[in-house]
Design goal:
The chain is of the alpha+beta class. The chain contains nine helices and ten strands. The protein has a six-stranded antiparallel beta sheet.
Length: 261
């Protein structure tokens, strides 16, 4: 899918498993979201692992590198070209720095935009502009806490373990013991580096792991709910709706939006 609204462009792109992109930059500001799969993105010494529903803001000229996960990854990106950045709204503080947003209204806006553009292709350009303004408003409302601060190696290993065990995260006490620190020290360092408590980070990972399975497979929802550790399909539906604003069926259709060719 490609939508052009005069300096503001939306494109859906597929990336191969294990694909690596050397440090590069874009002339315009980008707001992108993972639809399915996963990507690790680094800027300088900071890095973030994005999975289904995670959104990233990259100001124009941000040098970044990417490593895509072991399964095919699909992303939707909105690019604000230099000529469009003259608009005061596009110079909003929400777009002033690189950051990832793993939850909240901004990712939900992009899910709804994709769903609406598929349903009403004749209005796609206007829907894109409306969706951009809504996204900026949601990002402004989300505040300015960094998505990822530079973290010590032991803390990155804790985070990586959470990603590896999404849906079955061990207790904080066990994570702290494995890292060789006190649970309070782990909790404090984790919140400072990643913006949320360990338990909330783990909960979001479980929801996003389920969203990815909904988006990238045709497995029955009841099975996905069971294997992801939800009480039942209704529980899965509530959590996905809270995270994306869409039902599992609508999410599956939105993520199936074909990549641009």
């Amino acid at each position: 899918m490609k939508i052009d609204a005069g300096g503001v462009r939306l494109v859906v792109t597929d990336y191969a498993p294990g694909e690596r992109m050397a440090p590069h930059w874009h002339p315009g500001t980008q707001v992108s979201m993972v639809l399915r799969g996963a990507v690790e993105e680094g800027v300088g010494r900071r890095e973030h692992q994005g999975t289904a529903g995670a959104l990233v803001v990259k100001p124009a000229g941000t040098v970044h590198r990417n490593l895509f996960g072991p399964v095919p990854t699909r992303m939707v990106s909105i690019s604000i070209e230099p000529e469009a950045e003259a608009d005061a709204a596009c110079r909003a503080a929400a777009l002033a720095r690189w950051r990832w947003v793993d939850a909240g209204e901004a990712p939900r806006v992009l899910w709804r935009l994709l769903q609406s553009a598929r349903a009403e292709p004749e209005r796609a350009a206007q829907l894109l502009l409306d969706g951009l303004w809504e996204t900026l408003d949601a990002l402004e409302a989300a505040g300015s806490a960094p998505a990822t601060a530079e973290a010590p190696g032991w803390l990155r290993r804790v985070r990586d373990r959470l990603h590896d065990q999404a849906g079955a995260a061990p207790p904080v006490r066990d994570l702290a013991r494995a890292a060789g620190v006190h649970p309070v020290s782990l909790a404090r360092a984790f919140r400072r580096a990643y913006g949320v408590p360990v338990t909330e980070y783990a909960r979001r990972l479980r929801v996003r792991a389920a969203a990815d399975r909904v988006a990238s497979t045709e497995l029955p929802l009841a099975r996905i709910a069971y294997e992801a550790g939800f009480a039942d399909q209704a529980h899965l539906t509530r959590e996905l709706r809270r995270a994306t604003g869409l039902t599992p069926g609508a999410l599956r259709r939105a993520a199936a939006t074909p990549a641009a060719v």
